Amino acid sequence: MAAVGLMLSCTRPLAPLLRPGVPKMSPSQLHTTAGCASKDYYEVLVLGGGTGGISMSARMKRKVGAGNVAVVEPHEKHYYQPLWTLVGAGAKQLAASSRATANVIPPGIKWIQCRVQKLDPDKNCVYLENNQKISYKYLIIALGLQLRYEKIKGLPEGFNYPKIGSNYSVHTVEKTWKALQDFKEGNAIFTFPNTPVKCAGAPQKIMYLSEAYWRKTGKRSKANIIFNTSLGVIFGVEKYADSLLEIIKSRNITVNYRHNLVEVRADKQEAVFENLDKPGATEVYQYGMLHVTPPMGPPDVLLDSPVSDAAGWVDVDKETLQHKKYPNVFGIGDCTNLPTSKTAAAIAGQSGVLDKTISSIMKGKTPTKKYDGYTSCPLVTSYNRAILAEFDYNAQPLETFPIDQSKERLTSFYMKANMMPFLYWHGLLKGFWGGPAPIRKLLHLGLK
């Protein structure tokens, strides 16, 4: 979210419930649960209680009323995952990234605490794992993506050994901080997989933070820091890539392009990489610390689904987020095939556009508001500096502030560490934040 860019019973009105002498309700009582009788039809059905799902449910509540909206989400907790970069580096506590799902779903909206089993857009319904069928008038798919650690031989069981962590999972992010603290000497390896990933800058953010930590603790001279990435470039936007390459050079970090992690031998502290430019060729690296960015892909329920493209991503128009085949189906966030980075900042920009799109469809009009691919990646380079990357579908900078955001700045770091989490919980999830475009226009005096 750049700069400033960055689960069923009836619910009664809150005011009478909060009168003196009347017991207060817990957050979960504000929503209904799957164990109670639920309706089998909603005007708007939202699949997923992550960033995209919660932000859109808030917007739809204002549009059609809380009783006409339901969110399907199995998990009890909601996480602000961008904070995990700092959790893995010991700069934030994991608890700070968590809220109860009951606290983030807008009051009055139905929370169906269950998993989606099948989507049937031809009949305007979905089937849940509890064998319930829910019909809808409009469907918003916000199912995120799936971490596939099992695609790497030796994982996830390898996380039971020391010296290995991953900032991408709530179960392994604190292992990163442990591995970072326990590092003594040798290769410190950071990986980037050969799949789409969420927050493509995160695999190297933890590398820069690790380097800074070891400098601070006097271990830097004993660390051979290596970034093995499946990509052919350090970052997809040239302006920010140039700045990152300068940092990499000044900090004596080794980058091996087109190297993909295929196996972890945790008992031997060995990582095996395939050379993507030499099919079949592999290299074995000994490590003193290993940070794994797992392969990722669409959720299983989307594979071979009518709403998905050949790769399993929800097939939507890249400008309106409306499904290409089903006009009453929409997608947002990581589960879609939008050709932009999968970040919370991108979801912010998408949510504002999707709100307008659905409004137009509801009125029988053609959507006119267009999503330009805006996304942001605050590239944390130390414990008090960050590069604020913002860009569009064309991999061109789309910066909020009238300064060169490719430079490391203290202000950019504090936006990442403090302002963006606040904006996430109190703006984006409540449906009030659609990205920094209006602020950008103001600060650039109306110029693009």
UniProtKB/TrEMBL annotation:
Compartments, record wording: Mitochondrion
Main location: mitochondrion
Family annotation (InterPro entries): FAD/NAD-bd_sf, FAD/NAD-binding_dom, Sulphide_quinone_reductase
GO CC, alphabetical: mitochondrion
FAD/NAD(P)-binding domain span: 42-159
Keywords, in A-Z order: FAD, Flavoprotein, Glycoprotein, Mitochondrion, Oxidoreductase, Quinone, Transit peptide
Enzyme Commission number(s) from the entry: 1.4.3.2, 1.8.5.8
Record carries keyword Mitochondrion: yes
One Pfam family hit: Pyr_redox_2
One Gene Ontology molecular-function label: glutathione-dependent sulfide quinone oxidoreductase activity
Family matches, as Gene3D superfamilies: FAD/NAD(P)-binding domain
Taxonomic superkingdom: Eukaryota
Entry function: Catalyzes the oxidation of hydrogen sulfide with the help of a quinone, such as ubiquinone-10, giving rise to thiosulfate and ultimately to sulfane (molecular sulfur) atoms. Requires an additional electron acceptor; can use sulfite, sulfide or cyanide (in vitro). It is believed the in vivo electron acceptor is glutathione.
Protein name per its UniProtKB record: Sulfide:quinone oxidoreductase, mitochondrial
Originating organism: Eublepharis macularius
